[in-house]
Amino acid sequence: MSKYSSAYSSEKLIPRIIDDIARTHPDVLYAEIPNDAHSCQAGFRKITYKDLANAINGLALWIERTLGRGLNFETLVYLGPHDLRYILMLLAAVKAGYKMLFPSSQFAIQGILALIEKAAGKALLTPVCIPPTGAAIIEASQLSHYQIPELSDLLDVEHSTYAFEKSFEQARAEPFVVLHTSGSTGFPKPITWTHDWALSFGTEISLDAPEGYETMLNALPHFRALSMYPRFHAGHIFTCLLYPVFGGTVAIYPPSERPPGAAVALETLQATQTDLVFFGPLHVTELYNDSSLLDKISQHVKRISWAGGDITDTAGDAVNSKVLLMVGLGATEMGNWPTIRSKTWDPADWHYAQFHPAMNMVMEHREASIHEAVIKRRTEGHEQPIFKIYPHSDAYATGDMFVPHPKKPDLWRYYGRADDMLVFLSGEKFHPLGVENFLSHHEKIENALVMGTGKRSSILLIKLADGTSVDSIWPIIEEMNEQCPLVARVTRDRILVARPEKPFVVTPKGTVQRRATVELYSKELDRYM
Question: How big is the chain by its Cα radius of gyration, in Å?
Fold first, then answer.
């Protein structure tokens, strides 16, 4: 059990922890949400655990009245605005005997429908105001459709208690929620967390740091955190449910009807006190591109935790000079990897992470200085979250590649995915992420993808800014080539310019879906040896 939530509850199942805190410590703060879905000017509403439990009860009662009691953890699908109802839906569904699936609204409809089919979705739930993606699914599928209560009706009305009386041993292997992969290697795949998985996550974020080190919760106990992750994203559930319940943190919500950019984050930070912001790489890049925005944000928060993709050294150095950057690592199936920092940590090492020894992470050499992170099952102490999903494995190769710090042992920098590695006809290998990032962060280049597996040398697919020609960026490509081995260097005749009718396929995190984009240009690529 987490040492932070144990001050309020000895329970292990999240619905029971929330009910227990609501009963014994009703005024403990869970979150703050804007009173206006479009602005922070009307102030924030404090949501206590009593409020949270009451709203969950109201929604669980609505689910049972509308759909009946769940018999075998049937899957319900929800699409809605970026508000508190994602968390309420998750927990109300568990209480009512169902499990939730939260598809990304940024996927193509075909991808969402394939995901719903794989997860055996029973019904689609939306707010009264149906989002465009929800309307498209209603039209394209046979799912029954129901409209859930407004958030104000769930929070402002006192609801009857909806009991959840299972013990942890009874429920530990039962589903908690269904999320999905990012879709970077094809259609998204469902990933089911169990209650046991959730408790393992809570244990990992609450680990004590070795002597001379600190974890995020050691450094900022009971921190107030603004999360800018999409509400359907695992990062949202990490930061707005699991961290509050197991870590005693307070979730700060931005206005739900505004695009979740850095400008909205600033408006939120100006309206309520916040210790930490959870950002994606696009948000950090926004700050780099707008020094005035960066200056203003630095006046209201001192730490930014970023995750979900890489950022350039130039962008990170600029932001880190004003706000301390903390790299976050992990994945939907593995959770948020527990990291530690020396109490004498050099802020200049913002791009590096040191993993908690209890994670049992081993870096296995793959190519040149590149290593793959492999999690080994522990024989003592807690069992890591990944082995709740793969219980018969003793090791899990994450597919995440890292390079070591040139001078400091145990510090590692994320380098890319194993499945991004190019293998040329000669058998030589090259990982393209570094040079792709180099190109993509140039103002004349909107996106870049280096390909070459099964070819004699690299091929560059590039999306240029309006009014830009290949000739005008050739000096940039020459500079990129200086960073590459001979086999990976790009010549003028091996450059493909992306066409408007064939845009790069991107994930909800904004990163390029490599396989889908390569398939989109397969005919063009076949012309090259």
Answer: 23
Give Cα separations from 497 to 439, 455, 456, 488 (angstroms). Answer: 14, 19, 20, 18
Asked if 242 contacts 2 with a C-beta cutoff of 8 angstroms, the reply is: no
Mean confidence (pLDDT) of the chain: 91
Residues 431 and 494 in one domain: yes
| 521 and 426 co-located in one domain | yes
pTM: 0.85
Domain endpoint, select from 419, 440, 456 = 419
Do 392 and 463 have their domain in common? no
| Structure confidence by residue, pLDDT tens digits, 148-174 | 999 999 999 999 999 999 999 999 999
Total residues found in the chain within this entry: 529
Q: What is the DSSP letter of 143?
A: -
Unique residue bearing structure tokens 């994602």:
86
Sign of the torsion angle spanned by Cα atoms 510, 517, 445, 108: negative
| Cβ contact 402:382 at 8 Å | no
Residue span of the structural domain in which 496 resides: 421-525
CA-nearest of 277, 247, 245, 249 to 262 is: 277
Question: Which domain-ending residue is among 399, 419, 439?
Answer: 419
Same domain, 403 and 437: no
Give the model's pLDDT for residue 441: 81
